[in-house]
Design brief:
This protein has 296 residues and is α+β, with helices and mostly antiparallel strands. Helices cover 26% and strands 28% of the residues. It folds into three domains: 4-103, Alpha-Beta Plaits, CATH 3.30.70; 109-184, 2-Layer Sandwich (Alpha-Beta Plaits); 188-293, RRM (RNA recognition motif) domain (Alpha-Beta Plaits, 2-Layer Sandwich), CATH 3.30.70.330. The protein contains nine helices and 14 strands. Strands 2-3-1-4 form a four-stranded antiparallel sheet. Strands 6-7-5-8 form a four-stranded antiparallel sheet, with helices on one face. Helix 8 (256-266) packs across helix 9.
Length: 296
């Protein structure tokens, strides 16, 4: 079998949440520490301003260098005002290279677990619960006193090697209504920070969410959708007279990769006896495909 380190073929990575001040030269300097760079492209608006769309592509000469780059840079923070940078294989690259997702060492997916029953006394008890759904990298339970004096239920985290296994675990365990299980979010996302003055993201980055539970607010949408990327805006549509939720809303990201991942993973996700309907905002599905495959 050919070693990954010997695959001297171009490998394209998608890079999201790039600071607007970042140039191709800056991007090349950042990524070249991992290996030889063949190309750096920042996607820009077609208008005369040529403003950065805050995403782009980097093409490596070697697959192993690209993998090391993803492991190191993905979710690292370059600018706290826009959230952690996103570094992933460009759309279709894994299939083009003939790789299986299990051959690629992606960063683990972190899952938050709340209201842990008292019988789960040790972190290994939590690990065993999640092992049914896939490989668990790590698990831990926060100290009891962090949840408040006298609280018999605690919170913790589980890291799963594969994101699809984490999503299956969340869907299955939430049905039992014993614990709150969801994808963990960053400190920046928990504060509910969004890009000010931007009601929606770039073309191909805006999605429609239907079958939202009536008790959900924007906070709940951020909890579920924030793990897929930095949120430009989150909106639950409400009745003007009663302020009651109408059961649908909109989520906007700053890059198409995040929007595509959210649609793929959360469409059909079972919550409160209903399945979320998550799809691109009308007229943006084709736009997303163009952005995701541009640059070569």
């Amino acid at each position: 079998m050919t070693s990954l380190s010997n695959l001297e073929i171009p490998v394209k990575l998608f890079v999201g949440r790039i600071p607007t001040t970042c140039t191709e030269e800056d991007l090349g300097l950042l990524f070249s520490q991992f290996g030889i760079i063949r190309e750096c492209v920042i996607l820009r608006n077609h208008s005369s301003s040529q403003q950065s769309k805050r995403c782009g592509f980097v093409r490596f000469s070697n697959l192993i260098n690209a993998i090391e780059c993803i492991k190191t840079l993905n979710n690292s923070v370059l600018d706290e005002s826009i959230g952690p940078i996103q570094v992933q294989f460009a759309n279709g690259e894994i299939e083009r290279l003939g790789l299986c997702p299990t051959q690629v060492d992606f960063p683990p997916t972190k899952v938050f677990v709340g209201s842990i029953p008292i019988e789960y006394a040790e972190a290994d008890d939590l690990r065993n619960l999640f092992c049914e759904f896939g490989e668990v990298v790590d698990s831990f339970i926060l100290p009891t006193n962090s949840a408040g004096a006298g609280d018999k239920r605690r919170s913790g985290f589980v890291k799963m090697k594969h994101r699809e296994d984490a999503v299956r675990a969340i869907s299955a365990l939430n049905i039992k209504n014993e614990m709150e299980v969801r994808l963990a979010v960053s400190k920046l996302q928990r504060r509910g920070d969004t890009v000010s003055g931007s009601p929606s993201g770039p073309s191909g980055c805006n999605i429609f969410v239907f079958h939202i539970p009536c008790e959900w607010s924007e906070y709940h949408l951020r909890q579920y959708f924030g793990s897929y990327g930095f949120l430009v805006s989150v909106t639950v549509i409400r009745d003007r007279a009663t302020c009651a939720s109408k059961g649908y809303g909109f989520v906007s990201y700053d890059n198409p990769f995040s929007a595509k991942a959210a649609v793929a993973h959360l469409n059909g996700f079972l919550i409160g006896g209903k399945r979320l309907k998550v799809q691109y905002k009308r007229g943006e599905n084709n736009a997303s495909s163009v952005v995701m495959t541009s640059g070569g």
